[in-house]
Amino acid sequence: MSLSRISNLTILNACGDEGLYFSVGPFIVCLHTSIPSVIEGVALLYGDYPIAETSAFADYHITLQATAGVRRWYRPQVNFLFDGYKPFKPLPLSQSMPSFEWGLNWCIANNAHQYLIIHAAVVEKNGRAVILPAPPGSGKSTLCAALVNRGWRLFSDELALISMKNGNLVPIPRPVNLKNDSIEIIKSFAPDAVFSQKVRDTNKGTVSLMKAPGESAQRSTEVARAAWVVFPSYLAGADATLTSKPKAQACMALAQNAFNYNVLGAQGFKVLSSVVDASDCYEFGYSQLDEAIEVFDGLAASV
Amino acid sequence: MENAATLWSLYAADELLIRTWEDEAVVFDAYSGNTYLVDQMAVAILQYLDGKTTPQSKLVSECADRFGYEVDVDFTAYLISVLNRLAGLKLLHCESR
Q1: The complex's ipTM?
Q2: Would you say residue B2 has pLDDT above 60?
Q3: Is the minimum CB–CB distance between A164 and chain B shorter than 8 Å?
Q4: Residue A14: its pLDDT value, please?
Q5: To 10 degrees, what angle do helices A181-189 and A140-148 make?
Q6: How far apart are the C-alpha atoms of A124 and A181, rounded to whole Å?
Q7: Distance between A258 CA and the closest CA of chain B, angstroms
Q8: Which is it for the CA torsion B3, B6, B12, B15, positive or negative?
């Protein structure tokens, strides 16, 4: 049964009692919270994800808790707890839902070493995936959001999970984290997409989460092989241009964008180099989303 | 590091993984955990030194032979610069006899 089949009240009760257990890609999350914006956010953005048994093993026990003390009256804040431990300083209460997203990213990146984890978006078409590694500000999430609203399947807008066992890319199709101007750009590009409320004045500016397309969430157990590694960069006024990138340089750039490459040692190198081996690697500059989609559709149709 | 009596060897034998694509390669050093982007000459040196200590003069002539260069002042200076770079990355070790 998916989360969309139960009411916000049921979610609230579950989050307060034994915790709300739900599957996100290969992981089970157990969430404890009574913060209304998180309950609403989870109901809105995670409706298509399966509820897990409360007796199930949970990979990540997460609690979002409003801070206590006098401060809660004049500057309310939220604490993120992972297994009862607070890895971060509290954030303003208004940032509770983004804090859940950022915190869950942190939990996965620091613990899921059965995967080589690269800071990258991943989308898939016809069983072949594109890895889009890029630093913040490169337009990675905007491009990813556009692609998944034009027939590409969302694996992730933030974490490429590459199985250490077999090199498969494993989907974790969570909400796409859009920032600042990208929010309105994607709202007009995909008017049917579902967005959370905007949260202003975060470290990343104004953020809003775009719900993953239902099909992506429902097919979250279907893995794929990497076929392309594309390093995107938004260049104002530029035509969409795909330029071949030497594989050795792509391999280095992927290693630099990996969260846990150093933890995985020689095995991580072998998995990383096998992904590069199997992929065509490119630099991609763009300014117009429609042109970008055309280029990516061309790639998908090329083999 | 510039005389013929200099001996070169791998810093940590059996610890290097090398993946070559076209004219570049990526080297993973399991000893340090570091990864490096290197050119074909560096790869040739690392592969040649696998399991053996080699005098610099022999290394220069082997590499020149492999890539079809003349052993002249320019090539020797270039090769020494590559050797020194690899030594700086702690991929190679040198000793003077």
Answers
A1: 0.92
A2: no
A3: no
A4: 67
A5: 20
A6: 25
A7: 12
A8: positive
Nearest CA in chain B to A271: B19
- φ, ψ of residue A301 to 5 degrees: the values are -85, -5
For chain B, the domains span 7-91
Cβ atoms of A58 and A30 closer than 8 Å = yes
Can you spell out the DSSP letters for B1-70?
--STTEEEEESSTT-EEEEEETTEEEEEETTTTEEEEEEHHHHHHHHHTTT--EEHHHHHHHHHHHHT--
Separation of alpha carbons A212 and A223, rounded Å: 17
Contact criterion met (CB below 8 Å) for A232 and A132: yes
Q: Which residue has the tokens 């979002």?
A: A64
Q: With beta carbons under 8 A apart, name residues in chain B contacting A249.
A: 24, 37
> Residue B44 and residue B66: Cα distance in Å, rounded?
8
Contact yes or no for A140/A122 (Cβ under 8 A)? no
| Distance of residue B38 Cα from the nearest chain A Cα, in angstroms | 9
- A96-133 pLDDT, tens digit per residue, is 999 999 999 999 999 999 999 999 999 999 999 999 99
Q: Dump pLDDT digits (tens) for A250-287.
A: 999 999 999 999 999 999 999 999 999 999 999 999 99
**Domain B7-91 listed as CATH 3.90.930:** yes
Predicted confidence (pLDDT) per residue in A24-36, tens digit: 999 999 999 999 9
Whether A195 shows a pLDDT value over 70: the answer reads yes
- Residue A303 scores a pLDDT above 60: yes
Structure tokens at A279: 């992929």
pLDDT of residue A6: 67
Write down the H helix ranges in A27-175.
36-45, 71-74, 96-111, 140-148
- Which of B21, B22, B40, B43 has the most A C-beta neighbours within 10 Å, making it the best mutation to test the interface with A? B21
Q: Measure CB to CB from residue B22 to each of A246, A269, A277 and give the nearest one.
A: A246
The number of angstroms, rounded, from the C-alpha of A205 to the middle of its chain's C-alpha atoms is 18
SS3 A168: coil
